[in-house]
């Protein structure tokens, strides 16, 4: 299944617990409004991910297996290497693991999890 496409956030789980666990309590006031969109462009091992949320637009580009820098919605930038494992893309962002996973051809799950298994999950449906 190709990752390429546009997805819109349907639901999320674990926001408060995750933000508290990573010490970003100030972000708790910024609740997800359900209008967050993700666009993924895949060209071989090259990826461009655009996230639109609350007026913010983040563009992250990377090549599988190569050093890159990922910017988070919090504004933090973290150096990492993204690996592909079947229908999953995974990156270690310090003490956080970021995973993009296609559950089926129309459902994208983005998970941020701590070493203590506190997870923030965003479920999105393909819109294009």
UniProtKB/TrEMBL annotation:
InterPro entries: Calycin, Fatty_acid-bd, ILBP. Coiled coil: none annotated. It holds the Pfam family Lipocalin_7. One of its GO terms (molecular function) is fatty acid binding. GO terms for biological process: fatty acid transport; response to lipid. GO terms for cellular component: cytosol; nucleus. Belongs to the calycin superfamily. Fatty-acid binding protein (FABP) family. PANTHER family: FATTY ACID BINDING PROTEIN (PTHR11955). This is Fatty acid binding protein 1-B.1.
């Amino acid at each position: 299944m190709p990752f390429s496409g546009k997805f819109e956030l349907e639901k999320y789980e674990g926001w408060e617990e995750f933000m508290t666990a990573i010490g970003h309590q100030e972000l708790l006031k910024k609740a997800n409004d359900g209008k967050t969109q993700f666009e993924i462009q895949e060209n071989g091992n090259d990826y461009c991910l655009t996230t639109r949320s609350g007026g913010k637009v983040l563009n992250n580009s990377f090549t599988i297996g190569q050093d890159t820098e990922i910017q988070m919605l919090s504004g933090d930038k973290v150096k990492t290497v993204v690996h592909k494992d079947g229908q999953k893309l995974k990156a270690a962002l310090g003490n956080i693991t970021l995973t993009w996973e296609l559950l089926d051809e129309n459902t994208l799950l983005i998970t941020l999890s701590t070493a203590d298994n506190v997870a923030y999950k965003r479920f999105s449906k393909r819109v294009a």
